[in-house]
Amino acid sequence: MFFDIDKDLAEIAEAAQKKAAESFERIEKTAEFNGMKVLKAFIDNKVSESCLKGTNGYGYGDIGRETLDKVYAQAFGAEDALVRHNFINGTHTLSTALFGVLRPGDRMLSLTGKPYDTLEEVIGIRGEGHGSLKDFGVIYDECPLLESGMPDLEEISKRAAGAKVGYIQRSRGYSLRPSFNIETIEKMINAARKSSPDIIIMVDNCYGEFCEEREPTQVGADLIMGSLIKNPGGGIASTGGYICGKKELVELCADRLTCIGMGKEAGCTLSQSREMFLGFFLAPQAVEAALKTSVFACALFELLGFKTFPKSDEPRTDIIASICLENEERLTAFCEGIQSGSPVDSFCLPEAWDMPGYESKVIMAAGAFTMGASIELSADAPIREPYAVWLQGGLTYPAGKAGVLFAAQRLLNKKLIELDEKMKGMN
Ligand SMILES: *Cc1c(COP(=O)(O)O)cnc(C)c1O
């Protein structure tokens, strides 16, 4: 071994990896399917060397930009796509899509309870509200989730009547609710369409891309949106976002991103094209590595006696895992361990700080090639009950596994966990 890992801990880790074998097999099958799906989209759309070059200035007739849109659209089973480095992050992409589609007097209904924190200001349910959807006269409503964390299909049918947009968030974000798989998303869409056949379904697909064989656009979603420094950028794209779905809706979003009359037809790609193509090509594999890392982490920490969401053997629909570590000392040690096992900035020590927009202190570990990229191994935790850490990413499984081992070793060094012979034998 290359690293100083306690012998008993290493044995428990091997037991955890054995326990994960079935899940790994499932993940590999999905990655193989998605890898071929993406390759076919490259071939069918004739990706060429000139697509990788990039343009400057107005960027009219940029063949790389136009081809990348087609590749995304085909891979995600959509009519059209808008894939741009000009989206500064996931929130900007989601905001562009919402402002692109909604008009004054329209009602937006969230089908999955409270949306991701950063969208609250976009919608206008938190903050000053200047220029928010609410400020422009868009009415916001939400269907709370059931006690179990699952969507309330009856309530969705009831409230969807008259709504212009039904909004779904696939991933758990920073809550302990389950992430919604494609099957559940399809049920929500059908429930909404029962009372509102023309409702436009928009899905925040962040962290979900390539976790299953299908995307929400293949079960009736009209638009899906996500960030390129998460799954579909494959760890290679430096920045950006995508919107995929119905042609006329994608066009509305393009008009909002650029301006009316220009839409998708302008916007140079600078030197971003090669990274965006290569990243998308590698994305199914990056997601495979991240999913395996997540399953291994859950399996190991289950053996160590902790509760994880999801459980190690539950099928995944996003790359996130949260582990309840029960106190602040363990949260801190875990994040320090992840940081110390990162390829970049391994020698840094993360500290909890008062991050803008959060009520409690937050500690984050991220030793990544791209700042804030969470397809790379990263961990973050708000310092509050239930003292859970959110873990995501891992560009390769060996590095992901090592990072998780570093985290467990750090807990052991600080005497925050105890190992037990029984942990090795458990199956
Ligand atoms: C990451 C994420 C977003 C967008 O976050 P950014 O940090 O702006 O990229 C939105 N929704 C969910 C569920 C996310 O995971």
Give me the secondary-structure topology.
Elements: H1 7-19, H2 21-44, H3 63-75, E1 80-84, H4 90-101, E2 107-110, H5 119-123, E3 139-142, H6 153-160, E4 165-169, H7 182-195, E5 200-204, E6 223-227, E7 241-245, H8 247-257, H9 273-303, E8 307-309, E9 321-324, H10 328-340, E10 362-366, E11 378-382, E12 388-392, H11 397-413, H12 421-425
Helix pairs in contact: 1-9, 2-3, 2-9, 3-9, 4-8, 6-7, 9-11, 10-11
This protein binds pyridoxal-5'-phosphate.
Pyridoxal-5'-phosphate (PLP) binds at residues 89-91, 116, 118, 169, 171, 173, 204, 206-207, 227.
Give a brief outline of the structure.
The protein has two domains: 7-29 and 284-413, Aspartate Aminotransferase, domain 1, CATH 3.90.1150.60; 34-280, Type I PLP-dependent aspartate aminotransferase-like (Major domain) (Aspartate Aminotransferase, domain 2, 3-Layer(aba) Sandwich), CATH 3.40.640.10. It is built from twelve helices and twelve strands. The chain has helices at 7-19, 21-44, 63-75, 90-101, 119-123, 153-160, 182-195, 247-257, 273-303, 328-340, 397-413, 421-425, and strands at 80-84, 107-110, 139-142, 165-169, 200-204, 223-227, 241-245, 307-309, 321-324, 362-366, 378-382, 388-392.
